[in-house]
Amino acid sequence: MFTDDAGKGGIAAGGPGNSAESNRRSGGDLVQLITPKGERVSHPEFDPWVQDVNDEQLGALYEDMVVIRRIDAEATALQRQGELALWPPLLGQEAAQIGSARALRDDDFVFPSYRDNGVAYCRGVQPESIVKAWRGNALAGWDPFTVNVATQQIIIGSQTLHATGYAMGIQNDGADSVAVAYFGDGATSEGDVSEALVFAASFQAPVVFFCQNNHWAISEPVRLQSHIQIADRAAGFGIPSMRVDGNDVLAVMAATRIATNRARHGGGPTFIEAVTYRMGPHTTADDPTRYRDANELEDWAAKDPIARLKSLLERKGLLTEELETAVAAKADAVAKALRAGTINMPEPQPLDVFKHVYSTPHAPLDRQQDHYSRYLASFGDPAEAASEEGAR
């Protein structure tokens, strides 16, 4: 539906990053194409990159964001009802995830964090697969190579190293695809991220570092760990950066297209700071009221990414009853599929723990599996053993 090559006329293959304008962007000003009130504003450098986004596609972006917010709400409810062990909400970050994901090509490879479920949805991951790991039924919910999305990383920032290594492989293959690493503001204080930036800059790897600055690293505010704009950190590694309004789906899309185009044409890595806000808890085990001012939440609610795009659609006369009905129906259908898939998900069997550990036969693992199989057999019928254990 969207391609990153659209609208590149007038923009150098290297993309922004070496001009005075790019320096301004990495400072206090955010690139913005849609205001919080839903007004479309012009930006001469970024406008060409979204000039192909027509009325129908604006409606599709709106649908994407409504659907993933519904996925988020349904998964949160499932966790509260005991169907999931944990869930990391993305409420408020819909534009950052949808705008960037819809700017990628199918052959690009995504390396997400645990919160990037909207990106997974855009890449074709089925709703029930998104929650498999959170239900405890699998170590990963999907085969990475069927959707070009790596398994979600719990270890903060480690996916940036994976993305950089993959990007170096792309270079060796002579391809023009791009690796994209998603992470939060808290991850930028991790050593893994610094190491990834060093390697990416040294080898001019075709990788995009996409930081969703949601202002809170669990309970620590971003101002505590970074006394400068996060985008400015990239300059120390020789990597150009952009700082965009992360609640503006068009600005995010334009920035991602610029960065991926730059990577495809040998321009090396780019760092994008999408300034957004985590409106919910860090996870469903967190209580943000213990560390966050309610007034701050209220201020950011006025910048809601979905309300913003909805206002733009209204201004353009595009928010018809038919569109709203279709979007609501799609959100309901996805939520229904998520709930049914979660509740009816087959329980893993004891020996499943040995699956997918190695891609080729592995004698020590086979020996362990044999020992464990004989151990389980010592209890007799597995169903009876489980029943007796439950009774005890």
Automatic annotation (TrEMBL):
Region (Disordered): 1-26
Enzyme Commission code: 1.2.4.1
Biased composition (Gly residues): 8-17
Annotated keywords: Oxidoreductase, Pyruvate, Thiamine pyrophosphate
Domain Dehydrogenase E1 component, residue spans: 65-333
Essential cofactor(s): thiamine diphosphate
Gene3D superfamilies listed in its UniProt record: 3.40.50.970
SUPFAM superfamilies: Thiamin diphosphate-binding fold (THDP-binding)
Name under which the protein is recorded: Pyruvate dehydrogenase E1 component alpha subunit
Species this chain originates from: Arthrobacter ginsengisoli
